[in-house]
Amino acid sequence: MSTGLPKPALRSLPALTSVLAPVLAAPLAWAAWLGWDQHPDVQPDGSTTGPYEAWQVIGLVLTLLVPVCWTAYRRHTASAVLGTTAGLTAAAFYDWSDDSSGLFAVGAALVMIGTLAATAAVSGMIALTTRDVGR
């Protein structure tokens, strides 16, 4: 019987990488896909759209599927969900914080809710389909 302190759950570099991958990947992916496009597009009729195009958001989502799926497959489901959500929300908040209307906080909250729901669904499906793998 051991009377010492419990050993940390993250004893190895691969486990630590699994936990940190989504946290670091989310803001990097945001910067790569959305960070450079800051101005609304003016249409010929005078209306404005954007600043993001649909292909940019789709690219961000597809890019983030890689670390989310990889982390969930390694049985770090909470890290996949919470890490991606925290990273993407922080990136959105930072990117949009220069908005003088204050509505950036609403947008960041919507990013948080959407990311939480989507990553929870994807991670949950991966956890269910791979629960017998590796045993």
Automatic annotation (TrEMBL):
The chain crosses the membrane at residues 55-73, 80-97, 103-128. Residues 1-31 form the signal peptide. Keywords: Membrane, Signal, Transmembrane, Transmembrane helix. This is Uncharacterized protein. It comes from Streptomyces cinerochromogenes.
